[in-house]
């Protein structure tokens, strides 16, 4: 063949040598993949073999999914574009119109909005449990049409915990899964699947990535779907599949057994709704996971030191940190969180919203932003931001008062964080005194 034209060469010229083996996960930043043989295309679409399109599968994403599943003690993982995408895909793989979810009241407001405003429009109702440490309350809320229980391992914003094993037992008596958002704890501090949970979701943007640079989400499944016990509740997992030429094929449960839930999420929900993460984001999440234990260990130690110091301050009305002995769930935390109590918590400044505002405006080491799980320490005023659209009594029920601040503690020197909050609280108090005088 003769020399090709310039435009052809600029698109197609490439080295033909075999790819080297990289120690670090390569970034496969490509929309699609070539098929080596004509039959490979049919094999992919018929059997799922190989790679064709990044929305369906990508080696960079799969490397991170495998690592996270291993850390959570699960069977398989699925990486998505955000934590909200992970929660949405996980639940849309379980519920349909006319069905029901039972959820802890103490959850991220974005998740509450998903349940209350979005899933409700699809005909899925949610019952919220206020008394989350009551097994009887969870049991009483379950209906014949209930298809999932949902809670957070460490809640936003008051650090509430649930007894994962006890609530998982409730779910399993009814043949339904317990879904746990493990963002705040990470698999370093607690692995819900080891305590009976069935599905774990993460906002990977937070601690897993760790540096505030990318968005991502993840689902990890236990791989313990029991078709004989629960198949009648989830008939979409037992329905015959559609094979080549429209011929009926085996069901998802027949093909993958206990991995049916996450296979359905991967094959039918995620690619059709389309929340696919960039391979570059996946790479950065994977890089973050490699230092997860180091960061979370340091952050938890810093948070405990800071919470203990705040609890002694006259400017502070209360500190909601599960690592403090006075927290209502501290005994439970000693069981489930032996390696640290996490690093996101709230405290309430005396003087209400105005004092909280002055404190936020006075910080120097802390960064004022809506994020958490960063290597940097962050502060936010929930009543005017994340919880602004709740009524005052609803905020109070969640432990969010006018003077409440949420902090996410980073890896800085604890002494510098204490000094920064000391001067910020001093400014808030001094101004309040001047105004009163």
Structure description:
The strands form three sheets. This protein has a seven-stranded mixed beta sheet, sandwiched between helices. The N and C termini lie far apart (92 Å). The chain has 17 helices and 14 strands. It is globular and about 80 Å long. β8 and β9 (248-249) form a beta hairpin. α3 (59-72) runs parallel beside α12 and α15 (352-362) crosses α17. The protein has 437 residues and is of the alpha/beta class. 39% of the residues lie in helices and 14% in strands. The protein has two domains: 38-289, 3-Layer(aba) Sandwich (Aspartate Aminotransferase, domain 2); 292-436, Aspartate Aminotransferase, domain 1 (Alpha-Beta Complex).
Short description:
With 437 residues, this protein is of the alpha/beta class. The protein has two domains: 38-289, Type I PLP-dependent aspartate aminotransferase-like (Major domain) (Aspartate Aminotransferase, domain 2, 3-Layer(aba) Sandwich), CATH 3.40.640; 292-436, Aspartate Aminotransferase, domain 1 (Alpha-Beta Complex).
